[in-house]
UniProtKB/TrEMBL annotation:
Occurrences of domain CBS (ranges): 8-66, 73-130
InterPro entries assigned to the protein according to its UniProt record, in alphabetical order: CBS_dom, CBS_dom_sf, Diverse_CBS-Domain
Pfam family of the protein (one): CBS
Lineage start: Bacteria, Bacillati, Actinomycetota, Actinomycetes, Kitasatosporales
Protein name: CBS domain-containing protein
Organism the protein comes from: Wenjunlia vitaminophila
Keywords: CBS domain
Origin superkingdom: Bacteria
């Protein structure tokens, strides 16, 4: 059984809820990633912010990225998966929520993130195609 912990990208870096979106964008550029998990002061996952979120929910609305915080864009309950969850559960969660990046939690702390690239590297072409169809086709 393949688990979330086996396919995830370790070392995902959280951005504090109080950090501004311009700093989030800088971190994304420096790390060459398209999303950052958002964590509260105790290190617990509070959400995920993507480069698209910054553009659509801040810049395109004429808001100033240096004045909008990650917390301002963190809405609802974050979706995550336990490090020991099997790959089928990972795929199901991503499909159900139509998400392309999934934070991985162990002992209530972020330990990694699973992206589309991680899925592609660890599944057969047929499995990736079936998953992509379910996530994107709706």
């Amino acid at each position: 059984m393949t688990t979330a912990g086996e396919i995830m990208h370790r070392g995902a870096q959280c951005i504090p809820i109080t950090e501004t979106l311009d700093r989030a964008a800088q971190l994304m550029r420096e790390m060459d990633v398209g999303c950052l998990p958002i964590c509260d002061s105790s290190g617990r996952l509070a959400g995920v912010i993507t480069d698209r979120d910054i553009v659509v929910h801040c810049v395109a609305l004429g808001r100033e990225p240096s004045r909008v915080t990650a917390e301002d864009l963190a809405q609802g309950t974050p979706v995550w998966i336990d490090v020991n969850a099997d790959i089928e559960e990972v795929l199901q969660v991503m499909e159900n929520h139509r998400i392309r990046r999934l934070p991985v939690i162990e002992n209530k702390r972020l330990v990694g993130i699973i992206s589309e690239a991680d899925i592609a590297r660890n599944l057969s072409e047929e499995q990736v195609a079936a998953w992509a169809e379910r996530v994107y086709a709706r």
